[in-house]
Structure formats: C-alpha cells, structure tokens
Amino acid sequence: MNLLSLDQTIAAVGQSIARLSPAFSSALDRTVAGYILLEQDYLPPSFQNALTPFEQSLAKCFTERRRRSFIAARICLKLLAYKMGLVSPAQLSGTLETVSQTDRRPILPGADGLFFASVSHDKRFTLVVAGTRPIGLDIEAISPKIVKAGNYFMDMDELATARSSSVVMTQAVAMVWTAKEAAAKALNLHLIAAWRAVRLLKLSANESSYAYGGDTLTALHLYEWDRVVSLIYAPRSN
After folding, report:
1. How many CA atoms does the CB half-sphere of 218 hold within 13 Å?
2. Rounded Cα–Cα distance for residues 216 and 29 (Å)
3. What whole-number distance in Å separates Cα of residue 29 and Cα of residue 21?
4. Are 84 and 116 in contact (CB under 8 A)?
5. What is the pTM (predicted TM-score) of this model?
6. Per-residue pLDDT of the chain (238 residues; tens, 9 = 90+)
7. Which residues, 6+ apart, have CB-to-CB distance to 20 below 8 Å?
8. For site-directed labelling of 71, which of 31, 53, 61, 165 has its Cα 20 to 30 A away?
9. What is the DSSP annotation of 134-170?
10. Are 219 and 231 in contact (CB under 8 A)?
C-alpha cells in the first residue's frame, strides 16, 4: 500500500482523515508542524498489510482492542509522513518503520531529526502530531472519574492550585493529567517519574504551566468531542 491506496481505502469506508471543528484545526495548525486523526472503528482489516514486518510482530503481542489502536497509530504516522512530503507518495507503507526498535518510541518516517512525533489514543480516536522539537500529546475524556485519581499524580500544592483556578475541578484534573502524560512523552520520562518531576504552577482554561528542573513548561489545552487534548514541547535546552 502507498499513499494513494491508503487514502482510497479510508475513503471507501467513509472515514475522514481529520474530522475536526474549524477552531480545533486552526489551533493545531498554529501549534504543530502536522497532524493526522483517525477513528479506530473505521480501520479495515487490510491495514494490517500496511505494516512493516517488525510492526506486524509487535501487533501480534497485543489484545484485539490494543492491536487496533497500535495499528491506527502506525497508519497515522505513515500518512503524516506522506502528507508532510517526508517520503515519496509511491513508497510502500510496508517499508516505513514507525516504531523505534531500541525504545519503542514512535518514529515519523523520513523526518531524519528535523521533526518529532507524538501519538495518543483513547477508545475512539487516534491522533498523531509532529513538531520541530520533541513534543508530547495526550487525549482524555473529561469525566468525573479522573478526579478521584488526582491524588496519584498531583501533590497537595498542585491540587490547591487546581482548585483555586477558574476551571471546574473535573476539567482541571483532566488538563493536568493529560499535560503530565504529554510531558512524559516529550521528555522521554516514565509516566510516574513525570508525575513527580513535572509540577503544576498555574492553570487556565487553555493553558497551564509546570516546573521541571530549572525549566518552565507550557501546555496548550484544546477541546473537541468532550475531550481535552494537551500538547507540550520539551524545553529548547533538551
């Protein structure tokens, strides 16, 4: 499969590459170098053929649901590489590696260190973004359930900062959760390490800031489909 056949397959099942509101799309355009969104329920079985042998070997290790999101992420990364002109539209997708064999981090084919990618998914969507320096992305439904977990990834000072903001607590906790998850990806940290090392300083509806070592990180928060999408770049010193 190449770019044309991937696009034709997606169109045949009624899928849109980026079914996003104009406001959300515009915000992404201003923030990242490129992005691709897929709905996992639309993925046809033939997309298994778009994977490299290494990717196929990894896919076999997952449960059915996890395999679906894994394949969706691979397809998004390949499509993004095609759309950004990083690889030839004629190059077969089965030759484009999207997983590092050393640390399993996502790879944007053809980026050659000029662009970095991050992947996030939930039960419905898979979203991939690219940036000109290490970037982290996370997507999460805004649900009261996440508030109960706040004590695990925020200390008392952070919880107090979230409560004192103008944002309702359910949304605030979802914002911090996704920002710390995104930071873990951008900084190449274990998630639990990011919970402790990346500390909330300030929070508003569309932006929050965090202390990390001697740096201050800024997370951008976007909203779509009753979800928060958080984006964060690694500091330029990294």
Report:
1. 7
2. 23
3. 12
4. no
5. 0.93
6. 888 788 888 777 655 454 678 899 999 999 999 999 888 877 788 888 999 999 999 999 999 889 999 999 999 999 999 999 999 999 999 999 999 999 899 999 999 999 999 999 998 889 999 999 999 999 999 998 888 899 999 999 999 999 999 999 999 999 999 999 999 999 999 999 999 999 999 999 999 999 999 999 999 999 998 999 999 999 986 5
7. 28, 37, 224
8. 31
9. -EEEEEEE--GGGGGGHHHH--HHHHHHHHHSSS-HH
10. yes
Distance CA(120)–CA(37), nearest Å, equals 10
Tell how far CA 195 is from the center of its chain: 18
Q: How many helices, marked H, and strands, marked E, lie in the chain?
A: 8, 8
Q: What are phi and psi of 117, to 5 degrees?
A: -125, 155
Best CA proximity match to 228, nearest among 220, 238, 236, 216: 220
Measured CA to CA, the distance from residue 86 to residue 80 in angstroms comes to: 8
DSSP label at residue 204: -
Query: Tokens at residue 219, please?
Result: 């997370």
Give me the residue label for tokens 């569309």: 206
Distance from C-alpha of 183 to C-alpha of 51, rounded to nearest angstrom: 28
Measured distance CA(217)–CA(111) in Å, rounded: 24
Q: Residue 232 in contact with residue 179, Cβ under 8 Å? A: yes
